[in-house]
Amino acid sequence: MRKFWSVLFLLVNVTAYAASFDCAKATTPQEKAICASPKLSAADDQITAAYKAALAQTPTGMTAGVRDDQRAWLHRTALRCPAVGKNAVADLNECLNTDYEARTKQLKSLVVHQGDVTFVWRSIAVSTKDTPDPGDPVCAQEDVPGSSTLNAFWPQANSDAPEWKAWNLALESAARRVDQSDKKVPVATWEKALRGSQDSDSEVTVSLRSVGKQVVTASIEDFQMGHCAPYPNVTAMQFNWLLAEQRELLAKDVFRVGSGWEQALVKGCRDVLIPQIRKDGGKIEGNDVLKALHTIVADPHNWQMDAKGLSIFFGNSEDLNHAEIPDPITIPWAALKPVLQTSFAQPQ
After folding, report:
1. 294-329 residue pLDDT tens
2. Comparing C-alpha atoms, which of 321, 272, 314 is closest to residue 297?
3. Cα 270 to Cα 251: distance, rounded to the nearest angstrom
4. CA–CA dist 327, 272 (Å, integer)
5. pLDDT number for residue 277
6. 331 Cβ partners below 8 Å, 6+ apart?
7. What phi and psi values does residue 87 have, to the nearest 5 degrees?
8. Which pLDDT value is given to residue 217?
9. Among positive and negative, which fits the CA dihedral 175, 181, 187, 189?
10. What is the per-residue pLDDT across 93-132, written as a single tens digit (0 to 9) for each?
11. 111-249 belongs to CATH 3.30.565.40
12. Whole-angstrom Cα distance, residue 68 to residue 52?
């Protein structure tokens, strides 16, 4: 691929004119669009400044990965924003503006210091040719024409400690498998994760929630749009990691076996959730909602913990006969004290 706009900044130092490259040498449609549009030229300057600032904050051992991510983003944008069709110029400008805004936002939050650890967000963009879509206009809404795509954004800890190295590997693996039915089956690469989601475009985003001495929590969300689907499918999971044990948190780490903790969680959610389902037009048929609720609350992939208590996330609302995903419900630790493990240290 020909080097264009900010990629020149990544590789060599040049004098900027209308943007982060010499417009006199603009050859690609994307370059020409940037030079012709004051708005795009300003956006290109902003993303160059954001990238430069992010790189300056990135620990030395992780700068190569950040550079690779930026090059991958440039390549993806060239594919995603071609100059084709009846409204080629307007569509190209709109596409570039959207990509620049999103990437600049990412770069500004690329490095985060939380607890005693520095986290650097990695990103990846992969695509593969998919099956030809029929003439249905709905099927024409593809991120990259003729391809299935997967874009991911997730944190990695800048630490050589064994427990953090294990966390880095486990979190990335969890992000790759977030939309898989079996959350325990490893997915070796992002390319394999994409092959499991053919004929769709996916955005996987990881948000770091809390960093404690014992437990680190993160939320993983996959926003997937099938090429012929009328609406997107959103899959989410909570990732709770025990640092010392170097493994995901289990129910028995928090609750005493045989204490009736599942019923305590159901009780803590039921009185809030059922009125919410009724208000939003959902259906409550027999014990279906209670059965689904019991399954949801028993899975630590639906838990998020902080000093206030244990929050239950409901993920796919179809299990609850609910039109939309219900809001998370937080159960205070005081209400759960009778069923907690004596060895469990509540987050502070």
Report:
1. 888 999 999 999 889 999 998 755 555 555 677 899
2. 314
3. 20
4. 10
5. 67
6. 264, 265, 268, 269, 309, 310, 311, 312
7. -110, 50
8. 93
9. negative
10. 999 999 999 999 999 999 999 988 999 999 998 888 887 6
11. yes
12. 14
Structure tokens that stand for 146 in this block: 């003729």
Rounded to whole angstroms, what are the CA distances from 328 to 287, 313, 324?
21, 5, 12
List average pLDDT for each run of 10 residues in the chain, which is 348 residues long.
39 43 83 90 92 94 93 87 81 92 94 93 88 65 82 95 96 88 74 81 92 91 87 88 96 96 91 72 61 88 91 71 72 94 86
List, in order, residues 6 or more apart from 290 with CB less than 8 Å away: 266, 270
Q: How far is CA 112 from the centre of its chain?
A: 16
Q: How is residue 37 written in tokens?
A: 């549009």
Q: Which of 269, 262, 251 is nearest to 320 (CA)?
A: 269
The rounded Cα 227 to chain-centroid distance in angstroms is 20
Question: So what's the pLDDT on residue 238?
Answer: 94
For residues 204 and 221, is the Cβ–Cβ distance under 8 A?
A: yes
pLDDT value, residue 84: 78
Residue 250 confidence (pLDDT)? 96
CB 236 within 8 A of CB 168: no
What per-residue confidence (pLDDT) applies to 175? 94
- The CA distance from 98 to 103, in Å, is 9
What are the start-end ranges of the H helices in 141-283? 162-176, 190-195, 251-254, 261-279
Beta carbons of 110 and 53 less than 8 angstroms apart: no
250: tokens are 């289990």
CA–CA separation, 296 and 312 (whole Å)? 8
- Please report the pLDDT score of residue 226 as a whole number: 86
- The amino acid that residue 321 corresponds to is N
Token digits for 256? 């005493």
CA quadruple 210, 49, 96, 144: dihedral positive or negative?
Answer: negative
- Owner of token pair 């205070």: 332
Distance, CA of 91 to CA of 85 (rounded, Å): 9
Distance CA 313, CA 231 (A): 21
Interatomic CA distance for residues 102 and 50, integer angstroms:
12
CATH 3.30.565.40 residue spans of the chain: 111-249
